[in-house]
Each structure stands twice: as structure tokens, then as C-alpha cells.
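User: Hey, my collaborator sent me this sequence without any context and asked if I could get a structure. I don't really work with proteins. Can you help?
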Amino acid sequence: MFDMMGMMGKMKELQAKMKEAQDNLKNITVEAEAGAGMVKAKANGQRKLLSIEIDPTLLKADNAEMISDLVVAAVNKAMDEAGEKGQEELKKQTSGMMPNIPGLDLSNFGL
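Assistant: No problem. I've predicted the 3D structure and written it out in C-alpha cell form, which is a compact way to encode the shape of the chain:
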């Protein structure tokens, strides 16, 4: 017999775990660099950009296009790494609570 109340309880438990995991994503930080470390970008597990560091030697010359390219590259790397770490954290937090469904993408749950 199907236990609707038990399933509803599991869903509420899963929702609470997912909320907790999503809240914890802000504590995960990653840093990526471009141009041999001349530009660094830091992001968190919620894919929010936290900071950008640009080596002062880049700012002395007429390097606007290169700086732009390096910033984009560093930010994209940081966002990719943040997304991966965030998904790992969500999977860890909800381990055993969700059915193993092929193709289930946890990125739809707040990443």
C-alpha cells in the first residue's frame, strides 16, 4: 500500500535539506586565474562573483582589450569551478534522500 503521509514527510525533509545545502553554498569559495595569475576572480558556490584582482603592471600600459579578455577568462573559470563545487555540495547534503534518476540535474535546485 502506498504511504502518502510517509512520502509527504520525506518530501518536507528533502526540502529542508535542499534549503540548508543551498544556504551553505555561500560558504564555498573558489579562485581562478588567467594570464599566469595576472587576473584573479573569486566566486562562491552560489555562482556569485566575490572579487576581481588585477595585477597593477597590467594597468600601467594601454592593455584595455587584454585586461578585458583576461577578466572574462578568469570569471568564467571561477564560475565553472563554483558551479561544480556547488553541485558536489548539494549531492553530498542530499545523499540517500533522492532517488537515483539518470539525468537528474541538481543545477535546477538553485545553482
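In plain terms: The helical segments are 4-24, 56-60, 64-93. You can pass these C-alpha cells on to your collaborator as they are.
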